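Quick one, C-alpha cells below. Sequence please?
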C-alpha cells in the first residue's frame, strides 16, 4: 500500500513538473535541436553531391563573367534550384539570360549526371 501511494505521488509530481512552462520550454528547445541535427544528417549526402557538382563545373565556368559565375553557383547550391533549372532550361530549351549556348549545354549535361 505504501509503495502504491509513493508511486502515485511520484507520478503526480512528474506530471506537475512536465506541465510547467520551464519544462515545456526546455522540451521544445530539445526538440528543435534534435530535429536540426536530424535534418543536417539527412542532407549530408545531398550537400556532398552538390559540392562535387560545383567542383566539377568550376574550371569550365571560371572564364565566365562574375554575374554568370554567381548565378551558376547559386543554382547548383540546392536540389530544388537544380531541378527548376533542368526543367525550364534543359528539358524545354527555354531562353536563360545568364547561361546560354555551349555553357548551357555543358551545364545541362553535368546536371543529368547528378544522382540524388
Amino acid at each position: 500500500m505504501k509503495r502504491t501511494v509513493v508511486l502515485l505521488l511520484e507520478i503526480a509530481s512528474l506530471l506537475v513538473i512536465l506541465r510547467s512552462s520551464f519544462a515545456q520550454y526546455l522540451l521544445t528547445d530539445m526538440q528543435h535541436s534534435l530535429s536540426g541535427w536530424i535534418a543536417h544528417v539527412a542532407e549530408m549526402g545531398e550537400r556532398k553531391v552538390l559540392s562535387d557538382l560545383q567542383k566539377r563545373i568550376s574550371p569550365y565556368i571560371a572564364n565566365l563573367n562574375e554575374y554568370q559565375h554567381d548565378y551558376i553557383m547559386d543554382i547548383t547550391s540546392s536540389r530544388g534550384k537544380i531541378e527548376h533549372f533542368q526543367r525550364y532550361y534543359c528539358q524545354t530549351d527555354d531562353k536563360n539570360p545568364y547561361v546560354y549556348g555551349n555553357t548551357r549545354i555543358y551545364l545541362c549535361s553535368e546536371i543529368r549526371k547528378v544522382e540524388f
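The helical segments are 2-18, 21-42, 44-61, 66-75, 79-90, 101-113. The chain has two domains: 2-42, 44-113.
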